[in-house]
Amino acid sequence: MHIMEGYLPAPHALGWFIASAPFVVAGSLRLKRIVAERPEAKMTLAASGAFTFVLSALKMPSVTGSCSHPTGTGLGAVLFGPSVMAVLGTIVLLFQALLLAHGGLTTLGANVFSMAIVGPWVSYGLYRLVVKAGLSTAVAVFLAAALGDLSTYATTAVQLALAYPDAATGFWGAMVKFMGIYAVTQIPLAVAEGLLTVVVMNALAARAVEVTR
Amino acid sequence: MIAAGNKNGLMLAAAAVIIAAPLFLVHGAFEGSDDQGTTAIEQTGYKPWFQPIWTPPSPEIESLLFALQAAFGAGILGYVIGRRHESGRKDKTKTDHHVTR
After folding, report:
1. Of A38, A91, A144, which Cα lies nearest the Cα of B76?
2. b vs e for A135-170, b when ≥16 Cβ sit within 10 Å of the residue's Cβ?
3. How many CA atoms lie within 13 A of B1 on its CB side?
4. Which of A12, A139, A205, B72 registers the highest number of CB atoms within 10 A of its CB?
5. CB-CB under 8 Å, A138 with B73
6. Does residue A71 belong to the interface with chain B, where contact is any CB pair within 8 Å?
């Protein structure tokens, strides 16, 4: 899902910065409030950030014969709500842009939008919906993490199709092409991320009930 | 009913199989999807207008930094889970709340 440095036309890069900024600001405020009101949540916050750090560093093989990485943003989105992940995801993306030349500063706004905003919001929304539908928490966490992961990659495909519509087939032609590269590759990884998130949630839940809301 | 610990083990095993299976079932170059995306953009004739400020000088250094990123995250995660279980054990009056139940 990383759009590489310089690989978005300047107006697109700027547009995604403007779209992402309010979410990151709102997330910082919420993060500050959580730490002030519930200092005991700091550990779980650190674990949520750490989970994203681990998973986004692991490039895994997929059925398409290419590799991709999970995002790990579903865990924190379910535990603390989606806005917190806008901040934690931005930290991860900045680290990768500065030290790994993976992603970039000019494309940070777009990458934050897909990984740290759309993914967590899809995860959070799905989690609430599935729990409300009466299914178990484990099923809700699995679906939230898996589909949040997938939605991040679908967002990247949309972003690139908007920036590079196909000369003959336009936006939708480009969309099919980029979806093939990103979203299809991501399907097995998303399932694996869903399973891993449930396992980590179980491990944390030994005493983490106070943070689920 | 399968015990919670077994369930976690089964889920980990399933994740491992899902990740490893393509290596044996598919013949591919297994290059990164991010790089394929970059190539697809270049095929449209686009030239990037900004270069990374710093690029790891070799694939070895790059994998070192990726490994550090994963190790750092795994370390913190393990620490938090360990502390949780320790305090859970001290405080026996609290019941476990396993998500899988």
Report:
1. A91
2. eebbbbbbbbbbbbbbbbbbbbbbbbbbbbbbeeee
3. 4
4. A205
5. no
6. no
Least Cα separation, residue B5 to chain A (angstroms): 9
| Entry pTM | 0.92
Restricting to A residues 126-185, those with a Cβ less than 8 Å away from any Cβ of B are 136-138, 141, 153, 156, 160, 164, 167, 177-178, 181-182, 185
**pLDDT for the residue numbered A202:** 92
From chain A, the residues in CB contact with B20 under 8 A are: 61
Q: Which amino acid is at A102?
A: H
Residues of chain B found within 8 Å of residue A60, distances taken between Cβ atoms: 19
What phi, psi does A183 have (nearest 5°)? -75, -40
How far apart, in whole angstroms, are the C-alpha atoms of residue A75 and residue A191? 14
DSSP helix, strand, coil percent of chain A (3-state; round to 5): 75, 0, 20
Could you read off the pLDDT of A162-184 as tens digits, one per residue? 999 999 999 999 999 999 999 99
Name the one residue in this structure whose structure tokens are 């399932």. Answer: A191
Structure tokens at A4: 């590489």
**pLDDT of amino acid B101:** 41
Q: Determine the residue type at A19.
A: A
CB A91 within 8 A of CB A113: no
Q: Is the dihedral of CA A30, A36, A39, A42 positive or negative?
A: positive
**DSSP character at residue A166:** B
Minimal Cβ distance to B66: which of A50, A64, A100: A100
